[in-house]
Batch of 2 targets.
Target 1
Amino acid sequence: MQITNDRDIASRGYIYVYSVDRKRFIIPPTYLTESFLRELLRISENEFGLQSDESIMLPCDAPTMEYILYLICPWK
């Protein structure tokens, strides 16, 4: 599920992540149990670092991220 409006606010427990082409996605907490998404977060930490004052950037572009989210939850 991609968020395009900057005024949208993530619900409690959800996280925002960004693709390398700076598209923003909101990730429900239930998706964090998926091993593939956890691996992307691990790769992101190794490649970009994780700082508390910066956004999380995943090492993939927006179409790839949309496909990953579809694979995790195809009915949305």
Target 2
Amino acid sequence: MILCCGDALIDMMPIAPQPGTIAYVPKPGGAVLNTAVALGRLGAPVGLLTGVSHDMFGQQLAAHISHSHVDTAHLLWSDRPTTLAFVQLVHGQASYCFYDENSAGRMLDIADIPALPNAVTALFFGGISLASDPASDCYAALLEREAPTRVVMVDPNIRPGFIKDAARYRQRLDRMMAQADIVKVSDEDLNWLFPAPQSDEQKVTRLLALGPALVVVTRGNEGADGFMTNGTHIHIPAAPAKIVDTVGAGDTFNAGLLAKLSELNCLSKDQIKTLPPKILHTALNHGAKVAAKTVAREGADPPWAEAL
């Protein structure tokens, strides 16, 4: 099982019922939840570890992931409120305003998380849960606890407006990425992590030097690149798509990549270090193909396997 660890929230999606007015529709979201849902719909064995509220939105989140074949055994329930993210769309590009104080997803401690079963072979971390205390420290501790024996993928999915202490956030990310096997960043993430005037290849080299075996850089309509410590570099073009919005695109790419590696029995610590170029190319292409289906739909609505 791939266990996705991190944010599950409600995206308040804007609609215009009448000219000059805006209303919001609550839809399940969060980078980690989206990745888990996409994995479940692709047929990969997956679970979600996150804090969930007993409130109406938490019930909506639980029903959504269960419908998408995501295991719910690792949900951590509480009476705290659900995180809300109000979405603004400009030419299909999403920006967010978060309401996350004292939320069920944020107020976690490593003591809340029991030992993981042997069935969990890989863990995925990412999203705003890596930026907000105390959950961020909880997930960092969980990664450190499990990284020696399980594959770890990290996608920081950086939201600069959400970061209160940039220096501490960078230090935490550096520690987590150093212990990860796979790190995926967007080109925007890469430039935030390394703002100095260097080429992307130089920045990727710095990221690989931290410790991951594989670094993936996504570039929107310019495709994606995979870089390995053994010198392998694979570029794949973006899959053709008619873009409605980009909500959940990167999360779905993550799921496509992980699902294909799992399907090909390559999701182990030793195999990630020695991925053949052909396998990496196949996995990156699958991520791009799945993401293209998502951007053609409104909101984070990953495709089911039969839709590919």
